[in-house]
Amino acid sequence: MLAGCRNLFSPTFRRLCTRGNLTSQAALYTTNISTSSYHPPPTHSHSFLKSQHALLPINSSLHFSSTRCLCHIHSPGLMELKEVLQVMEQLAPLSLAESWDNVGLLVEPSKSRPIKTILLTNDLTDAVMEEAEAMSCDFIISYHPPLFRPIKRLVQKDWKQRLAIRALEAGIAIFSPHTSWDSVKGGVNDWLVGGLGSGQVSVLSQALGGPSHSHKLEFMVKNTEELNAVMEELRACDSGTTIQHSVNRPDSSGIHVSVTCSDSALTPSVQTLLRHNAPSLSLNILKLEKPPLPGYGQGRLSVLDQPVTVATAIQKMKSHLGLSHLRLALGQGKTLESPVCTVAVCAGSGASVLNGVKADLYITGEMSHHEVLDASAKGTSVILSDHSNSERGFLAVFREKLAVRLPHSVTVVVSKADRDPLEVV
């Protein structure tokens, strides 16, 4: 079934896409979570503060689609950095990233230039930077953020700061998606678990949605004049950027008002309402909790359609990851011929996500010695590939997903210099 031509980001970039590909920006905010699959718990009332789950509008097709567009964008025009960033946000919203992560645009040159060459890498190293400079790269997408901890100076003695300086001098922008790629549907973890074949896949650590509005204030005013005066003061609390309100039909007791606001606007908004007689007497504060986003989050658990042996699982993952060696810890009482019906995966360092999950097999990049012992003692076998080897293969998959959303003037390349720092000797 074909979808019609949709506007992507600007009138310049149009494309005829198959169902499941990137939807328009307008559609992003119009599809609600199905109430048949999501049932919020009952609201808990407190003396002054109530907790309420808000059903947030999300786009059910917001994921890395495995379906290719029928055609490329036939625009002869050049693409700007901000337009590429819009495509990246559509593919994997940065809001999906973990709170501790440092994702998004990390290096932005002062002089803008058209984006003609994009280099994909798992890690930004000196070798990868040399590769980028040699091909006159304009934009580097580094899965791991090369700048993670706060820095107080840019000097040559720190290798990561050197890379940032070189990027600025060469006019190269740097972007990191990291855990947003892990969490999104069709992202790194879905790719990783797919190495053992099809199955019923679920998320291990559920992602939560949430708008900027975190609180709802309910109150009453006597008349329209008071409503206008109160709303004017409330908008002044946070420059009018996060205050939204709705008004119910007036009755004999007055006009019922509902206002949503951000964390930063909560305190001044409450103080404003307490200065007015009617609102202060009727004020009710509700906290809007973030609902789960089905299918989004860290780690995956798959109940395989076709169970395999541990030995077969090893061979499948070697092929999937492009590796000649993996590390294996057999679960207690298990052999290479033991069946694997359920597999839990987490790209990178996955012990915190996999801990406590019941599965025949864990697959991740790295776990500590004692974490492996714990899993093995519970009868779960463990396959370790080393950290970046559990992620790097996704770059080629993402290259295809990104390339079909860009004009012909942009070339997307997977780094040949990027590699795991560890090797078997």
TrEMBL record:
UniProt xrefs under Pfam families: DUF34_NIF3 (PF01784)
Keywords per UniProt: Acetylation, Cytoplasm, Metal-binding, Nucleus, Phosphoprotein
GO molecular function per UniProt: metal ion binding
Subcellular location field: Cytoplasm; Nucleus
GO biological process, any: regulation of DNA-templated transcription
Entry GO terms, CC: mitochondrion; nucleus
Gene3D superfamilies given in the database record: NIF3 (NGG1p interacting factor 3)-like
Family matches, as InterPro entries: DUF34/NIF3, DUF34/NIF3_animal, DUF34/NIF3_sf
Source species, domain of life: Eukaryota
Binding site for a divalent metal cation: 144, 182, 387, 391
Subunit text: Homodimer. Interacts with COPS2. Interacts with THOC7.
Classification via PANTHER family: NGG1 INTERACTING FACTOR 3, NIF3-LIKE PROTEIN 1
Family membership noted in the UniProt record: Belongs to the GTP cyclohydrolase I type 2/NIF3 family.
Function: May function as a transcriptional corepressor through its interaction with COPS2, negatively regulating the expression of genes involved in neuronal differentiation.
Protein name: NIF3-like protein 1
Species per Swiss-Prot/TrEMBL record: Sparus aurata
Gene: nif3l1
